[in-house]
Amino acid sequence: MTDRHAVLRAAAATLPGETPRLDAELLLAHVLGEDRLMMLVGRAPVPDEAVARFETLLARRRAHEPVAHIVGEREFWSLPLKVTRDVLVPRPDSETLIAEALRHFAGRPPARVLDLGTGSGALLLAALSEWPASTGLGIDRSAEALAVAAENAGRLGMGARAEWRLGDWAQGVEERFDLILCNPPYIADGTPLMPDVARFEPAGALFGGPDGLGPYRLLLPEVARLLPPGGVALFEFGEGQGDALVAMAKASGHAARTVPDLAGRPRVLVIAVA
Predict the structure, then answer these.
(1) At a CB cut-off of 8 Å and minimum separation 6, what does 55 contact?
(2) Distance between CA 257 and CA 237 in Å, rounded?
(3) Does domain 85-272 have CATH number 3.20.20.60?
(4) pLDDT computed for residue 38 by the predictor
(5) SS3 content of the chain, % helix, strand, coil (to 5)
(6) Architecture of domain 4-63 in CATH?
(7) What residues have CB less than 8 Å from 144, skipping those under 6 apart?
(8) pLDDT digits (tens, 9 = 90+) for 155-180
């Protein structure tokens, strides 16, 4: 038996990345089958068998495997989502799209939501969690990703409200949607990435061509036919891409603006139809 805080201190000192203590806490909570915060206030020592299992998980993290892959899920918009190597790990920055959608639809929920490049289903399921009467469609070119999204919808009790379709962006989609959500690949090809990302997350969901803007060149011209009056399309983008995307939207006939994430960095392109 070992004091849990001593175990955490020792573990955190060996882990890579920017959040070694948090990573250690999440892994130990997973091993003990406890909520992280309850684990931190607990006083019971860690059994030797649990210490051994914890060390196995720490070894995986030292090899840069993301914590979300090790424990099998990641929280997004307070929803526990299954993640695998077939989907991006949902990031807090992407919650900016949901916050902006809530502002746009204050007092009038969208009836239909479209999530392009849905991956784990994070954006669509977060939106549906906010509007219980809404339904949505998630599209992805990866059948494996769609299987993860469908499982997440079922686990969260939204299986009847979310449809999943294999496809290439909005190609073949004839319906119009009140809300379009999209977090496309926007990293320029060849950009060096942290080992946690480069080794474990799908390249097809990360890289967006020589300048990272390839997906937007396909997507922005589609907005007019997919959005009805009063609708809004929200696209996540990367550092330094905002001005180019506003200009690109203008060239496609749309007035657009950007909104920042919690760190104050421009993060989301907003295209609203009057």
Answers:
(1) none
(2) 12
(3) no
(4) 87
(5) 40, 20, 40
(6) Orthogonal Bundle (1.10)
(7) 84, 86
(8) 999 999 999 999 999 999 999 999 99
